[in-house]
Specification:
single chain; 284 residues; alpha/beta; Rossmann fold; Adenine-specific Methyltransferase, domain 2
Amino acid sequence: MIIIYIKSPINYTGGKYKLLSEIVPLFPTKIDNFIDLFGGGADVSININANKIIYNDRVEPLVGMLKWISENDFDTINNQVIEVVNKYGLSMTNTDGFTLLRSDYNNNLIDKNLSLFVLNCYCFNNTSRFNIKGEFNQAFGKNRSCYNPKIKKNLFLMCEAFNSKDIIFENKDFYSVDFDFLTGHDLAYCDPPYLLSDAWYNKGGGGWSINDDIRLFELLDKLNDKGVKFALSNVIEHKGKKHELLIDWASKYKTNYLNKKYKNCCYTLKANKFKTQEVLITNY
């Protein structure tokens, strides 16, 4: 049976939509509580079957926007988006309109969740980016980005998915999330920033260091000791480098090799001649 997965209308660096057909079948067939520890654009959360879903991400504006989407129906959001598009004269060529909306967002002059969604529709690669101050600093997607039928469809499907699931949203450091209630019937899924990546979250996004990897590995070891299942997405090889620390730590668990390629990722274009090996590491 062919399963059709929903794509989030929120593009996010490292999103797992293209890998869902490989990742989801590797999850347990029955999950009580599912924690999406680094939720990003929620591609995984909206496609997982679990009795309860806890979406968490450290990027506060992203979490707020997704929570806002979950609390509204498609028609309400769509009408509000169109109002903003008309107010700012947004199009694929109106740089000034986009720049004004971005400024109003950063200066808290417009609803943050609504305007962030619209900015995401019209920015470069439809991918939100923030600086260390939390300001939206992605460029305009001139001649490429807009609130198009594909985004509308994905938004509609996301609203339906949120409406059909018991999901809560949290904005915490991954180590601060409550894991005490988890049992062997639950799953903690981790898609952290990749240490080998040059993406914005390793720079202006606040940084991800080897110490963060170590903290995460220690956390997963603790979950394993409790009998809680986990699954970790990462890369063990990228841009001619190997993540030796990850490889060594993962040797005590199961490493599932995935087939994702990064040919279209703007931050890896210069590295396409190097092999990238994405994996899903599980303790079950």
